[in-house]
Amino acid sequence: MGMKCHRPVLLAVSLGLIFSGCVGLAKANSCAPIESLSRDQVRVLSYAYYTGAQEDLGLTMAAIAWHESYAGKIIVGDKGKSFGAYHVMATTSMWMNGTRDSFDNFNREATKLLDLQYGSGQALKYLVKMRDKTTTWKGMVTSYNGGSSYYYAVKPKLKLLDKCRLYWLGD
Predict the structure, then answer these.
(1) Dihedral through CA 152, CA 155, CA 157, CA 161, nearest 10?
(2) Do 78 and 144 sit in the same domain of this protein?
(3) What is the residue range of 49's domain?
(4) pTM, entire model
(5) C-alpha span between 113 and 18 (Å, rounded)
(6) What's the whole-number average pLDDT of the chain?
(7) Which of the pair, 2 or 53, is modelled with greater confidence?
(8) Of the N and C termini of the chain, which has fewer Cβ atoms inside 10 Å?
(9) Dihedral of CA 98/93/117/109: which sign?
């Protein structure tokens, strides 16, 4: 015997909600934030994923790119100190490369970080350094942007990207 529906509701397709016909049985489309991304944003997430996959950090890289730059939409952050899809700090990138910190070198590094390929490589390089130093995924993500609040902001994005990978990876 079917469930008795005391308060039927109208289908609200425009809100992105799926209703079975009764109040209390509605579920929001949890992949809606990913479905609404532009083609360019999906390209950034996919590039991040495949770059990070070589170190088993594909979803982590994609989640960081989504969190830091909204997948490539905001490519300069931290008052002009971090750049690219992952908002890598220019000084951190120079440190990893062994480049002397100077105004000219900062500007050159900032420009290079805006390139998705270079920025992805630098973000991955830094994540691997932090993974080796901290030995845990949480420690690595926390170290990437200096705090546990960062970990708690990135983790749900990673979970959503994993759950909804059909929408942005196609698998």
Answers:
(1) 180
(2) yes
(3) 34-168
(4) 0.82
(5) 41
(6) 86
(7) 53
(8) N
(9) negative
Helix 137-144 with 148-163: angle, nearest 10 deg = 110
- Whole-number pLDDT of residue 28: 66
* pLDDT band at residue 97 using 50, 70 and 90 as cut-offs: very high
Query: Taking the C-alpha atoms of 159, 164, 168 and 171 in order, what is their torsion angle to the nearest 10 degrees?
Result: 110
In tens, the pLDDT along 110-141 reads 999 999 999 999 999 999 999 999 989 999 99
Q: Do 4 and 81 belong together in one domain?
A: no
**Same domain assignment for residues 52 and 132:** yes
Asked if residue 37 lies in contact with residue 49, where contact means CB atoms within 8 angstroms, the answer is no
Domain count, the chain: 2
145 and 103, same structural domain?
yes
The token duo for 12 is: 């609200």
